[in-house]
Amino acid sequence: MPEDHANPGSSSSTATAGAAGDGSAVVQFEDVSIAFDGKPVLQEVSFSVERGQTLVLLGPAGCGKSVLLKLANGLLKPDSGTIRVFGEEIDKLRRREVYALRARIGMVFQESALFDSLNVEDNVAYRLHEERVPEAEAHTRVVEALKFVELEAAIDKFPSELSGGMRRRVSIARAIISHPDLILYDSPTGGLDPITSTTIIELVMKQRDVWHTTSLVVTHRLQDAFILATHRFDPATGGMKLLPKDGADGGIDEGTKFLLLNEGKIVFHGTTEELVRSDDPWVKRYLE
Amino acid sequence: MPILSPEVFIKKQVAAVQEYSILSGRAIADIFSRPLYWGDIFTQMDSIGAGSMPIIIMSGFFTGCVLALQSVTALKEFGAVSMTGSLVALSMVKELGPVLTGLMVSGRNAAGMASELGSMKVTEQIDAMRALGTDPIRKLVTPRLIATVFMLFFLTIIADFSGIVGGTLVAVNMLGLNASSYLHSSYSSLVHGDIVQGLTKPIFSGFIIATVGCFFGMRTTGGTQGVGRATTQAVVVSSVFIIIVDFIVTRLMIGIFGS
C-alpha cells in the first residue's frame, strides 16, 4: 500500500505543508508513530488541523483512527514524533498541565462512555461539577446543552434507560457543555441505525456551523463524511441544508477536510474535491 | 493462553511492579494536594467500614470462640487453663484480629474495587474521566486508599473486641471458667507493644487492599472476562501480600518492642 501520493491532495504535499504550520494549527502531528505489543498502529503520521476546520478521519476498521484521536487528547503517548495541541506538546506536559489543557477539549467516545452510576444531568454537568460551578448555573447550562441535542426530557434518566442514539447525544452534550475549542468525535454514528446516524451528524454539523468549533471526526461511514462536506446547518429550519452547487464554494464546505488512513499510514489528506478526484487506486476502491 | 518466553514473562512482571509502584506513589502524593474528593472518601468509608462491619463482627466473634475452645484443650495438658484469657486476647490483638480483618476486607473490597474500576476501564469511562479533565488516580484511587486505611484500623479494633467477647462467652458458659479472672488475665497480659503491633498491621493491609484492588481494576483489558480475571487476581494478590507483610511487620515489631 503506497504511503504517500503525488496527487494534489496527497499526504506528502498537504500533510507536510500542514505540519510546517502557520501558528494557527489547533492540532499538529509530526512523524507520530505508536505500536502496541510490537505491532505498529500508526507510522510516521503528519498532519495538522487549522482553527475552525473539521477533519474527517476515514479508513477501514483497525487502521488507527481511534488511536489517533486518543493521541490528540493525550490519552495515549506516542512512541516517537511530536503532537502539538493549541501549540503545546501534549506528550511533554506534566500531569496537571495535561488535565488543564483537556478543559479546552471535548471528546465523544465510540460507545458514549457515560458514567453509568450518574444520571444524565450529572453526566453532562460532570466537568462543571469538577470546576466547582454553582449548582444553579450548572443546571442552566445542562438544560442548554441538552436542548442543543434535543434531549432535555431525559435529564433525570440514567444511561441504562437510554437508547444508543440517546446515549450518543448525551455524550455530545457532555462534550460541548464547556464550549471547548476542539472536539474529538470517535465514531459518533457507530452502531446506530441510519436515521439516528443522520441526527447525530446533524448535531456535529450544528456544532461546527453554530460554534465554529475545530473538530476531528472519526467515522467509517462515507455517507456521514460526505453529508458533513456538502451540507450546512440551517438555523431557520433547525435542520441541515444542502449547500448550493452554484455558490462560491461550489456546494462543498471549505472547512471540512479528509484524512484517510490505512494500516497506520496516511493514504490521503486533503479537501473533498481532491478526495473525489484522487487517482490513487486504493482511495478509489475505498470510495466505491 | 499463549506460553511466554522467560524473558518476556520477567519483563512483564517487572513492568507490572513498576506500574503498581507509580500508581501507589501517585495515590499517596495526591493525598497531600488539592482537590481531595471528600464526597468519594466518605462514600468509600461507608462502603468499606459500615458495609464490612457484619462480616468483621461475625468472623472476629467466632474466631475468638474457637480459639478459646482449642486453647483450653491444649492448656489443660499443662495445667494452665487460667491462661486461656491471656492466650485468646494476645492472639486476637496481635495476629488474628488484624490478619483476619485484612483478609475479609480484601475478599470483599479489593474484589469490589477491581470489578468496579475494571468495568469502568473496559467501557472507556476511565478514559472519559481523563478526557473530561479529571485525574482518575486522584478521583478513584486516592479516596479508596484513604478510606480503606482509615476504616481497616477501626474494623481491626472491632474484630479484636468481638474475638475477646466470643472467647469470654465460650470460656465462661461452655468451659466453666470464672469470668472475672478470665477478663483479668486477658487485660493484664496485653502491653503497649502488643496494641501497637496489632494496630500497625491494618495500616499496611489497608494500603495493600486499596492499591492492589485499584491496580488490577485500572489495568483491566478484555471485556467482562477481563473484569472477572482482574477481580480474582486482586483478591489473590492482596491476600498473599497481607500475609507476607504481616510476617515482616511482626518481625519488625518484635525487634522494636521485644517478644
Which labels suit this protein?
A: alpha/beta, 4-stranded antiparallel beta sheet, 11 helices, 12 strands, globular, B: mainly alpha
SSE blueprint:
The complex is a heterodimer of chains A (288) and B (259).
Chain A: H1 11-20, E1 25-36, E2 39-50, E3 54-58, H2 65-72, E4 80-85, E5 88-89, H3 95-102, E6 105-108, H4 120-124, H5 126-130, H6 135-148, H7 164-176, E7 182-186, H8 194-211, E8 214-218, H9 222-230, E9 231-234, E10 239-242, E11 256-262, E12 265-271, H10 272-276, H11 281-287
Helix pairs in contact in A: 6-7, 7-8
Chain B: H1 6-29, H2 38-76, H3 84-122, H4 125-131, H5 136-174, H6 179-189, H7 192-218, H8 223-257
Helix pairs in contact in B: 1-5, 2-3, 2-5, 3-5, 3-6, 3-7, 3-8, 5-6, 5-7, 7-8
Q: How would you explain this protein's 3D organization?
A:
The complex is a heterodimer of chains A (288) and B (259). By secondary structure, chain A is an alpha/beta fold. Chain A has a domain at 105-179. Chain A has helices spanning 11-20, 65-72, 95-102, 120-124, 126-130, 135-148, 164-176, 194-211, 222-230, 272-276, 281-287; strands at 25-36, 39-50, 54-58, 80-85, 88-89, 105-108, 182-186, 214-218, 231-234, 239-242, 256-262, 265-271. In chain A, a hairpin with a 4-residue loop joins strand 9 and strand 10. Chain A is globular and about 55 Å long. Mean pLDDT of chain A is 86; it is low at 1-22. Chain B has helices spanning 6-29, 38-76, 84-122, 125-131, 136-174, 179-189, 192-218, 223-257. The model of chain B has no long low-confidence stretch (mean pLDDT 92). Chain A binds chain B through residues 70, 73, 75, 95, 99-100, 102-103, 105, 107, 109-111, 113-116, 126-127, 130, 174, 184, and chain B through 123-125, 127-135.
